[in-house]
Amino acid sequence: MYSLFLKRAICIFLTLALCMAASAGNGLGLKTVVIDPGHGGKDPGAVSKDKKTYEKTLVLDISKRLADKITAEYPDVSVIMTRSTDRTLTLDQRASTANDADADLFISIHVNSSTSTSPNGYSVHVLGQSSNKNRDLFAYNMDVCRAENSVVMLEDDYSTKYQEFDPSDPESFIFMQLMQSAYLEQSLLFAQFISDNLSGGPIKSGRGIWQDPFYVLWKTSMPAVLVELGFISNQQDIGQLKQETSREALAEALFNSFVEYKTQYDKSLDFAVEPSSVPVAESDSTAKVDKVMYGTQIFASGKLLKDNDSRFLGYKPEVISGVSIYKYVIGVSYDPEEAKKSFGEISKKYPSAFLVKIENGKSVQIR
Question: N or C, which end of the chain has less CB nearby within 10 Å?
């Protein structure tokens, strides 16, 4: 059983690597973004207490506003909507739209709900396991996951199509980790921009950035976030969401987040490796903090892993702490040419790895 699972996991990982390699040759810069208004058609999503307001309607309006803003500011960016009308879409169709377009970014827009009227506020979600070691992934926040994943139950053949996906099953979650681990760093970066820009807006309370097992994030092969713009079950939040000016403000906040992310994304593509400096003995731990180093980032994780973790394949990694994540870098050297040479060998074992420059405890990707 375990052997079969491992083979399937490796196949998925290699498929992801090939997709990433293919997309690398499609030009520089963020060129394609897919906006996904949640629910639609026979799936209304969350419904207000008076049964007059539907999540599917609110998120479509906000999504269209966001799409128009991006198109107006960046005419060279392809903005694709998974749906621009009130129609039913499967989660597979949403993810396939992004994957088929070779998108650089996926934004799924939703509104939350609760059986209680007290919960309120916005939250941003990326795929992954909770970074809180004391939190049970399969019990914590699962109501939200079940609500957003429940659309699969509307499909006649859901038991066949989604048989490998069960957000309460640890085996399914390992598949998710393999599919999105290469994009966790970028997803969290964009999520942080969204969380910051929504602060002080019409939805007053911020609930933070979460790592959760959403199917639509699992199936997308690019940086991806799912944002919940308030609670339709909360009187204050729904009051704001009903107002056109508030929906415009929410779309503007998401647009500003996109601008920040695209600016940083595009800037990273212009980075050039600096000429080699005089080598310094790597045993000098003080120098490691002050001197520029180069290496190969193999993946990022929300959990701090032990040096002997099997995922390191015998390498001893340098650990770079980021925003809610840990970046694992191997083949580290003060000489960029030596680091590039090591990258050639490492990338055979880690196809989604990439070169980074490490300075003052921070890493920057070298494209």
Answer: N
**Alpha-carbon distance 231 to 237, whole Å?**
6
Across 32-63, b (16+ Cβ under 10 Å) vs e yields bbbbbbbbbeebebbebeeeebbbbbbbbbbb
Q: Closest by alpha carbon to 188, among 217, 159, 225?
A: 225
Q: How many residues does the chain have?
A: 367
| Cross-strand partners of 112 | 231
pLDDT band, residue 270 (cuts 50/70/90): low
User: Nearest CA to 305 among 149, 181, 124, 147?
Assistant: 181
Highest mean pLDDT among 129-138, 166-175, 234-243, 290-299: 234-243
Contact indicator for 294, 366 with CB cutoff of 8 Å: yes
pLDDT tens for each residue of 271-286: 433 433 334 344 444 4
How far is it, in rounded angstroms, from Cα 227 to Cα 235? Answer: 19
**Residue bearing the bigger pLDDT, 228 or 168:** 228
Place of tokens 């970074």: 131
pTM: 0.66
Contacts 24+ apart (CB under 8 A), 138-147: 138/167, 138/168, 138/170, 141/210, 141/212, 142/167, 142/168, 143/114, 144/112, 144/212, 144/228, 145/212, 145/213, 145/214, 147/46, 147/113
Segment 291-296 shows an average pLDDT of: 90
- Residue 357 pLDDT more than 60? yes
